[in-house]
């Protein structure tokens, strides 16, 4: 729908999120330190030293009589730190700043990489943050003279006159009002969008996902073939998968490895951590389970997606250069399969004429399933005489370990 | 680990609050701020020095902060710093005086929260240990600085079609 240059900006969404967060932190600090002066001005107005100034003494009294509006939100002599909590802006600000503090400290890369759950669950404090941000100004405690009052009581002239003599000098009692909270106007649109997205996720959670096949691949990889009504994906898109049996709160992203032309969708899951190990166990694919689970014993899965990545545009151009490293090669499984399917259809002349495929990984062990797929595609393309459609360049970067370096001298035995 | 992050950010905010306190304390109205501002700045800087080196994770490699080795050697020489109970109680006591004026209140609340998390960590028997330098993995084979002089082995069925892996 949108031009490519604008769509590319969406690729940097996390960077934008971080820039917003840095700006929020900076502005929070400035806001806090500015208001700390403000609070002390409010509370120190009641100290005897300041009360000697007649103007200040009169101004803080305004509001005590009925029918008067106040200027100073602090109405009696309190300690300044206590005043922070008396003001509505104060204690809501404390809650907001504390939740921001927890969110910021747990979002540093070190915590995200090593203690992801700490990051994930504290980051949900943003609900508290935004909730209290919207009501932060609800008591309208930043006050000034109303426009109507400014017409009848000129502060420049009347501040020089003794306040006790104001009635005689054409200075009626000034009327003060606070400005209404305005933050909600800025944040309401993103909040509504977020709520809509969570509702969509909830709806998708309730849609049924049928597990067709679970295939065990070498090197602890399982392939799950599923089907869901109304599910359509482009090449290389990814989905979030949730298994309520394992955890109600964890949605994990996986790239789809099936082509859009196939009638099922598949993901390849590498068993690395506790969620994936639990997943392989409930699917009957761990070491102990060698029997096929009947479909009524299969766990319920929920799919949220598909979400897009950069690989969707590849069919619009005659030459594509695809570079994948490590796990990043999974979108290309879907891409190459789709290229193959499109080739089978002779009526539709593909715009894409040549794919250069670069694959860089430490060693092929973790991606043997992909190597098998490549070999299969190569054979199929050779059969129809189109083997120059895809050109592969594969780089293994881990180098030789201390066992492999003897292979050339000993003669490499495939079975060793 | 998380306690370290919270206490470090808290000590940054405490130092900035101390600077604000000093700047406000130079004004006539807020002279009360000046001693607390100086206190906040000094202890903020001490806390930054104490918190900046990241301790070693229990398993796996630990990512060090930049230039942390300068202060990490200092920390290994100080007596009580690796005990998290000490850190929790000491930070709590240090932050109480700086909580009485508003600019340093924020930083001291943050450091007190950090000390609370340290107390939880201490109950789980965690300690601060210096990050050891990453050990080099030495290959037992022959000298690997030379590129291989032979091409990788090619099985007979691979020779015909170079595109197959």
UniProtKB/TrEMBL annotation, chain A:
Keywords annotated in UniProt: Membrane, Oxidoreductase, Transmembrane, Transmembrane helix
One GO MF term attached to the UniProt entry: superoxide-generating NAD(P)H oxidase activity
InterPro entries in the cross-refs: Cyt_b245_heavy_chain, FAD-bd_8, FAD-bd_FR_type, Fe3_Rdtase_TM_dom, Fe_red_NAD-bd_6, FNR_nucleotide-bd, RBOH/FRE, Riboflavin_synthase-like_b-brl
Any single GO BP term: defense response
Highest rank taxon of the organism: Eukaryota
Transmembrane segments: 20-37, 78-103, 115-135
A Pfam family this chain is assigned to: FAD_binding_8
Catalytic activity, as annotated: NADPH + 2 O2 = 2 superoxide + NADP(+) + H(+)
Localisation per UniProt entry: Membrane
GO cellular component terms attached to this protein's record: NADPH oxidase complex
Topology within the bilayer: Multi-pass membrane protein
Domain FAD-binding FR-type: 204-313
Coiled-coil segments on the chain, per record: none
Protein name: FAD-binding FR-type domain-containing protein
Organism: Ciona savignyi
UniProtKB/TrEMBL annotation, chain B:
Protein name: Cytochrome b-245 light chain
Organism phylogeny: Eukaryota, Metazoa, Chordata, Tunicata, Ascidiacea
PANTHER family listed in its UniProt record: CYTOCHROME B-245 LIGHT CHAIN
Organism: Ciona savignyi (Pacific transparent sea squirt)
Keyword Cell membrane applies: yes
A Pfam family per the record: Cytochrom_B558a
Region (Disordered), start-end ranges: 137-165
Location of this chain's protein in the cell: Cell membrane
Highest taxon listed in the record's lineage: Eukaryota
Family of the protein in this entry: Belongs to the p22phox family.
